[in-house]
Amino acid sequence: MADSIPDVEARGKAFADTFGRVRAEIGKTIVGNDEIVEGVLVALLAGGHVLLEGLPGLGKTKLVQTVAGALDLDFRRIQFTPDLMPADIVGTTILNEDEAGKRSFEFQRGPVFANVVLTDEINRATPKTQSALLEAMQEGRVTVAGTTHPLPQPFFVLATQNPIELEGTYPLPEAQLDRFMLKLLVPGGDLAGLVTILERTTGEREAPPARMATQAQLLEMRELARRVPAAKPVTEYAARLVLATQPGQPEATEAVKSYVKFGASPRGAQALLLCGKVLALARGRFHVAIEDLRALAKPVLRHRLILNFDGEAAGIRADQVLDEVLARLKP
Predict the structure, then answer these.
(1) Quick check: 107 and 147 in contact, CB under 8 A?
(2) Same structural domain for residues 171 and 184?
(3) pTM
(4) Quick check: is 286 in a domain?
(5) In Å, how far are 155, 169, 216, 289 from 286, measured between CA atoms?
């Protein structure tokens, strides 16, 4: 039976209140970067994963730890290095022998079995190791020695990479990039923000974040977000936005035709609409607006655009292409 209007309104208000409390609690530790914090929470509640790109020392790891603490989620950190193996991530099967001498195989779980998994400097591991995350990120499970093991829910991967240190790294393949719902660019802080960081981190040790929601509440919020309606014009706008990034489509702009080799996939359109539903609830609405999609277009689509040789040679960034797409594609 469908929920009554008062019940829907109450649940929507509770969603927005919880979202605001969690964001405020994270803000006690993470200075500035409100859009980054919001983006991480949106992706988490939409059931996706996030790729964080930024210079070292900008608090990316601290952000993930704070999010896990504020939501009472089990947290694991994996430092990606060239010698890291897939078994170091997902786990392996070992042979055990009991006191009676009876031998049996036992699966030892790897660090991927957690609610929040930080994969630090993900592009430092080989493609073979990077691929160990593909099934986990897409299906919420891992398969080892022919046996499938479900991952705890909620399951959230947040990966970091350094945009300037490229020596000894392995760029993420398109299939891996497409698994990330959002790519967020972490900027450097301003004077006021840096002063606040120094005041908070060079004095007494900070208290851990207070728990603002439980795992059960988080799963309920995810389910509620999927029930947010999107009018047909809004759904069509999401589809048009994605098609406009594909050079072979009539909706493509001149920048897309000139500089883009491959545009966003249908998974990009799905991510755009799901994140739009979460953002609508966080803003106190139980319907998706085109403004929600436009606000999320760059984080959702920037890593899904593959530039051609001309685009790379001219130093074109995906965000520049998306700026033109958004300017041309009016609501």
Answers:
(1) yes
(2) yes
(3) 0.87
(4) yes
(5) 25, 43, 21, 10
